[in-house]
From TrEMBL:
GO terms for molecular function: hydrolase activity. SUPFAM superfamilies: Phosphoglycerate mutase-like. This is Alpha-ribazole phosphatase. It comes from Blautia hydrogenotrophica (strain DSM 10507 / JCM 14656 / S5a33). InterPro entries: His_Pase_superF_clade-1 (IPR013078), His_PPase_superfam (IPR029033), Mito_Ser/Thr_phosphatase (IPR051021). Transmembrane segments: none annotated. Keywords: Hydrolase.
């Protein structure tokens, strides 16, 4: 039960906000955007340009940089390019297949058989993932995230963050669906396999994560929104189906692969 002094202290405390944004509708063949993706990026920029944003970070991949370009130009800003924000893409040969595919693209009947995939400290242990050094890639990405957050005043200690400099900064990441799930899994303490298969981020959608400091100096991250595409709806633009599969198998107009 919070005491009165705790409530008063809480009102004075500050919260940092992270916006994790997927790139616009992709043209993977040229690592850029489709015509629709360019429109999405423009509509996104109209939303972001009205915000007080402390810092922009962007993936080294073209489709993320192209998505960011509208916002950065409109605001007269630049973004720090980070190689670790590129799509999370270790390759494995999935069960019953001959060609390698991205590690997080599994059929439900395959990945759900492995209980360890649901566990945040064991999801990387199955042999296929060990051979592809998936844990090493994950720890590189999340280690870089923690180093970045330390620059912004929050230092990782175990499963929470020690507040070295509380602030109300808004930080934007232009990145990718798979990579975004990796960031969220680390911040929230969830296996990324659960997020990769249970969450869907449409192109240019926004995930909003904020710090909470219920006791002075100790912060955790909490997600306030995921997959937010309201900037598209206000323009009458339907979200792209990229990253989604068929809702009913008999619908041949939707993806089945």
């Amino acid at each position: 039960m919070l005491e009165l002094r705790d409530i008063k202290d809480a009102k004075r405390r500050k919260s940092m906000k992270l916006l994790i944004i997927r790139h616009g509708d992709p043209n993977y063949s040229i690592d850029s955007l489709t015509e629709k993706g360019w429109r999405e990026a423009e509509y996104l920029s109209e939303r972001l340009s009205g915000m007080d944003i402390k810092k922009f970070y962007v993936s080294s991949m073209g489709r993320a940089k192209d998505t960011a370009s509208f916002t950065l130009k409109k605001m007269g800003r630049s973004a720090e390019e980070c190689k670790w924000l590129r799509e999370f893409a270790p390759l494995i040969c999935h069960p019953g297949e001959k060609e390698e595919k991205i590690v997080w693209d599994w059929l439900p009947q395959d990945w759900t058989k492995e209980e360890r995939f649901y566990q945040k400290d064991h999801w990387f242990e199955p042999e296929l993932l060990r051979e592809a050094k998936v844990r090493e890639e994950y720890e590189w990405v999340t280690g870089e995230l923690d180093r970045l957050l330390e620059r912004h005043g929050y230092v990782r200690e175990g499963n929470y963050y020690r507040v070295r400099e509380a602030n109300t900064d808004t930080i934007v990441f232009f990145c990718h669906f798979g990579l975004g799930c990796v960031l969220l899994s680390h911040l929230l303490g969830i296996s990324p396999m659960v997020l990769w298969h249970g969450f869907c981020a449409a192109p240019t959608s926004i995930a909003e994560v904020v710090t909470e400091e219920r006791r002075k100096g100790i912060a955790s991250f909490r997600m306030r929104a995921y997959g937010d595409t309201s900037h598209l709806y206000v323009k009458g633009e339907e979200p792209s189906n990229s990253a989604r599969f068929c809702e009913c198998y008999d619908n041949v107009q939707e993806r089945h692969d």
